[in-house]
Amino acid sequence: MPSKPLIDETPFRVSVPVQVRMSDLDPFVHVNNGVQCHYFDLGRSFYLEKMLQNQVDWKTIDLVLVHIELDFAAPIEFHDQLVCETKIVEIGHKSLKMIQRLRETKTNTVKTTCYSVLSGFDRATHQSVPIREEYKALIRALEEC
User: Fold this and answer.
1) Total domain count for the chain?
2) Would you state the pLDDT for residue 9?
3) Would you say 96 and 35 are in contact if contact means Cβ atoms under 8 Å apart?
4) 4 lies in some domain
């Protein structure tokens, strides 16, 4: 299992609002843990679009999610005003480490933190490949704004 990157003091430069829907709630009237993975998918997709400065072509992009780990700090409720914040904190040869969080904007409370790893991926061979240098440059430019 990959080690969790430390949440450093660098800001989250990419953020997208998340709408909580009635269908997201579980019997405890909190957002279901599995649904929160969808929120992080939205944030990850939004990050990639900001990075690429274009819509993601999911049939050709050569990155794939290979690990995800969530820490639930507080329940998310229906009237919470959420944002999903995303940043890449480590760029390796064949993988990227990403940290995301769901933050309630009225109270500034971090509800859930997500640690994930994306890998370079060749869709034809289904093999891990190095992260494109183009992606590395785009990430560095985005994260160092």
Assistant:
1) 1
2) 74
3) no
4) no
Nearest-angstrom CA–CA distance, 21 and 39: 11
What CATH number corresponds to the domain at position 134? 3.10.129.10
Supply 28's token pair: 């405890």
DSSP structural state of residue 10: S
The answer as to whether 125 is a domain residue is yes
Is the residue at 86 inside a domain?
yes
Q: Are 88 and 96 in contact (CB under 8 A)?
A: yes
Which domain covers residue 44, as residue numbers? 14-143
DSSP H helices, the chain, are: 33-52, 133-143
CA distance 25 to 27: 7
How much of the chain exceeds pLDDT 90, in percent?
90
Position 122: which residue type? D
The CA–CA distances, whole Å, from 82 to 29, 64, 77, 90, 122 equal 16, 25, 10, 25, 34
In a domain, 5, yes or no: no
Residue 14 CB-density burial (10 A; 0-12 exposed, 13-18 middle, 19+ buried): buried
41 Cβ neighbours under 8 A, 6+ residues apart? none
pTM for the structure as a whole = 0.92
